[in-house]
């Protein structure tokens, strides 16, 4: 490990570590997982109490809090690690638990959650469409399809079909799809900060910056400020994927539906 100073300034020390030494330092952490509860803060003791039951681990585990809502987990058994890594989506307090493999590039303060596994519902879908290949194809338009829920495959639930997908949290969500002459709504389980106007994750309708104020309100503001209002129609939002509406064939407004109620 070497030390030098930026521009010769002793107040700006710079350290560097050789590649072999860096690899050796990383080895104890290579099998760790990084976790974070999406959309909610949770304490160390709460996770320590809940995780063994949630994951049904057969061996022991170690938990380390690393700030900004992130935690690192180390397992005694490789089988437990693999089940946690690939057995999701996991949920605590009706919020998704993000699970990622640790990497040397992980820095809690600079890491942003860009994607997550989510359970989605296709509401009112005809039973003839409860076919794995059909459902995965529909899901591929929404995100990266992972698997169809077992209750859906076994036809033990008929109100909706459920599929697990990996979605990009930085893009607007799809609120509906058209299949054989009918529009069907898509419902997203466990996503509480999902805007029903723009379809984006991270805020709700009342905080949406893309919501256009009613024209009457705009005129009132202009009159009070002594500003002449321009004439012409108010332009529509560029993203109309989440306008409230009903399922119909001739006229359908798309809807983004976060569902906090579970089954």
From TrEMBL:
Residues 219-263 are annotated as: Disordered. This is DUF4283 domain-containing protein. Pfam families: DUF4283. It comes from the Eukaryota. Residues 27-107 form the DUF4283 domain. Residues 231-256 have a biased composition (Polar residues).
């Amino acid at each position: 490990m070497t030390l030098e100073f930026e521009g010769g300034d002793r107040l700006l020390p710079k350290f560097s570590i050789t590649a072999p030494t860096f690899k050796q330092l990383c080895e104890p952490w290579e099998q760790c997982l990084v976790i974070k509860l999406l959309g909610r803060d949770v304490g160390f003791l709460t996770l320590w109490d809940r995780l063994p039951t949630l994951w049904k681990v057969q061996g022991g585990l170690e938990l380390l809090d690393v700030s900004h809502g992130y935690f690192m987990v180390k397992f005694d058994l490789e089988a437990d690690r693999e089940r946690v890594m690939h057995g999701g989506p996991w949920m605590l307090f009706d919020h998704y638990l993000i699970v990622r493999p640790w990497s040397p590039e992980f820095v809690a303060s600079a890491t942003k959650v860009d994607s997550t596994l989510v359970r989605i519902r296709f509401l009112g879908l005809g039973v003839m469409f409860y076919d794995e290949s059909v459902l995965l194809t529909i899901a591929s338009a929404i995100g990266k399809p992972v698997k169809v829920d077992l209750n859906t495959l076994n036809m033990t639930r008929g109100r909706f079909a459920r599929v697990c997908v990996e979605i990009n949290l930085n893009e607007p969500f799809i609120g509906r799809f058209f299949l054989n002459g009918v529009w069907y709504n898509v419902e997203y389980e466990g996503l509480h900060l999902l805007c029903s106007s723009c379809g984006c994750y991270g805020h709700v309708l009342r905080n949406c910056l893309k919501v256009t104020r009613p024209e009457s309100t705009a005129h009132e503001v202009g009159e009070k400020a002594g500003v002449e209002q321009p004439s012409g129609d108010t332009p529509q939002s560029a993203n109309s994927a989440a306008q409230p509406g009903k399922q119909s064939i001739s006229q359908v407004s798309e809807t983004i539906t976060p569902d906090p109620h579970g089954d």
